Amino acid sequence: MKFILIVIPGLLALSCGGQMKRKDSNALFLIEQNAKNGYINKSGTVTIPAQFDEALPFSEGLAAVQVSRKWGFVDANGKLAIQPQFDRPSFASEGLIAVDINRKIGYVNSSGQFVINPQFDSQHKGPGDFPEFFASFFEGVAAVRVGQYFGFIDRTGKIIINPQIGFVYPFTQGLAAVSIDGQSQFGFVDKSGRLVINPQFQQALPFTRDLAAVSVGGKWGYIDKAGKLTINPHFDAAIPFSEEDLAGVLVNGKWGVINRTGNFIINPQFDNIVSGGPGIGKLLFCGADFSRMFYSEGLAAVQISGKWGYIDRSGQFVINSQFDDAFPFSYGLALVRSGPKYIDKTGKYVWNPSP
Prior knowledge:
Blueprint: E1 28-33, E2 36-41, E3 46-52, E4 54-55, E5 63-67, E6 70-74, E7 80-86, E8 97-101, E9 104-108, E10 114-121, E11 137-138, E12 141-146, E13 149-153, E14 159-165, E15 167-168, E16 176-179, E17 186-189, E18 195-201, E19 203-204, E20 212-216, E21 219-223, E22 229-235, E23 237-238, E24 247-251, E25 254-258, E26 264-270, H1 281-284, E27 300-304, E28 307-311, E29 317-323, E30 326-330, E31 333-336, E32 341-343, E33 349-351
Antiparallel strand pairs: 1-2, 2-3, 4-5, 5-6, 6-7, 8-9, 9-10, 11-12, 12-13, 13-14, 15-16, 16-17, 17-18, 19-20, 20-21, 21-22, 23-24, 24-25, 25-26, 27-28, 28-29, 30-31, 31-32, 32-33
């Protein structure tokens, strides 16, 4: 069973900022110095020195850090709030954290106490893979794996949808995209497990802004929550609608931007719109806010002629294409290149460590 986040080839759908739930002025950003990880604030000042073997972004006031090959969690002051003891971490979501011990998933609270004992099968497949992210709670439920199948639990650990589904996405807007056999025929279930949109799509992505991208006959379009096609399938690829009510779609090898009626507001001209350099996932995944994977805080990263820059909703470059990688803005900063480096909305480097 292959666990996939986004099933469009080459499209790595990682989002930033959706789960941090911290005041803008207090946001912290993951950095790397001398092969160690630490954190800076929005001004680029190091607030937690680079000292950890590996680390993940902050979420709900905690960040997972690796010390001596075990994972624990630090608070915003850099103090260990949960001692290193886990084999693999996730991020805090809705007050609980999915953790892996001996290839079993359980859930701890912000004090490190188990609320749901380790009992579900690990979704980990290999080095650099952090699938515990997708075991996290969203909208009060979490996806869990038992054997080869997925189901959902509530915050007490009670199974509310039996593990009998081959592949699942997190719940968004009350529905979850699922494939019963894990390979084809996607539909959508509600939290009772009822199929409210029958399996009929080759692929499907989570709902955002009351629309979901689906594939029919090898082409992508969008459905509403009743399962009705509102934008007919005629795109080669598509991603979820953003918080700006805009979505990126692929036509003849170029990405453009459509509105909710399916009309182009920016004609196809970009080489790519979602970056995903090797190993970058752990820096970015701050929650399954799929509406922030393209336009975020009014700007979108796009690639043209091999370089990345940022456009506004009219398609005008606000920050010229110049970066090898570029990712969504979160709390006023965006990660560019790998390393990482951060810029503000003027394109000025806030964190630009020497090679």
